[in-house]
Design goal:
Blueprint (H helix, E strand, L loop, with lengths): L7 H12 L2 H9 L7 H23 L7 E5 L5 H8 L3 E6 L2 H13 L6 E5 L9 E6 L8 H13 L1 E11 L2 H10 L13 E2 L1 H11 L1 E11 L2 E10 L1
Parallel strand pairs: 1-2, 1-4, 2-3, 4-5, 5-6
Antiparallel strand pairs: 5-8, 7-8
Helix pairs in contact: 6-8
The protein binds S-adenosylmethionine.
Amino acid sequence: MSSSSFNAEEHKKMLRSYFDGQGFQRWASIYGDDKLSSVRNTVRQGHAVMMDKAFDWLQQLGLPKGATVLDAGCGTGLFSIRLAKEGYKVKSVDIASQMVAKTKEEATKQGVQNNMEFEVNTIESVSGTYDAVVCFDVLIHYPAEGFSQAFRNLSSLTKGSVIFTYAPYNNILAFQHWLGGYFPKKERRTTIQMIREEEMQKAMDAAGMKLKNREKISWGFYHTMLMNSSHK
Ligand SMILES: C[S@@+](CC[C@H](N)C(=O)[O-])C[C@H]1O[C@@H](n2cnc3c(N)ncnc32)[C@H](O)[C@@H]1O
């Protein structure tokens, strides 16, 4: 999809219908403890590595107890709940109502729901002011133009850091992505949109953000770039 053909409304509709439909079970089992195929197991493991690193970075910000964090595109709430257990006040937002319901259910089971707020909303429209914003494995579904719009909104919600992941462009990844359409099953593919370095830089500039640190996480079929950004 070229940036000129990007239609924000259509794109959101497609993501909502996938993540509130067949994508819900797929991701809930990857983020849960169901037995998985070896391919999906690498995605679960890689994601856990990414979350540990992101958690360390967030802790290193040295925010006070009770600091507010927006988890944009919270999925089943893995990171939100971890933050709430650590004493942060968390706003968990997701485009898919099933994801938000699952996050709430898990938070309640684990007794941290009072440290959390839950909202069905998008990364483009969510509002408020937070001490930090996190957004993991959501922007990987956005081509450059949509990425830039959403990232600008997320950056405007904090004076602090935005910690997020994206899918960097490289030829091997592009090949694996292509291959992923056929293996293990075509219909299981989630579209990953790779962003080129210069497109990322443009999006950062447009949002008035700069890179603090980044780390590439590669684990089997899980590939992502974890980014820590702050205002210029
Ligand atoms: C691959 S999952 C990642 C979930 C979670 N961030 C994690 O890392 O455990 C992607 C999530 O982003 C959500 N999502 C996709 N597009 C979104 C949007 N525009 N606004 C908010 N959430 C969105 C999906 O519903 C899904 O829950």
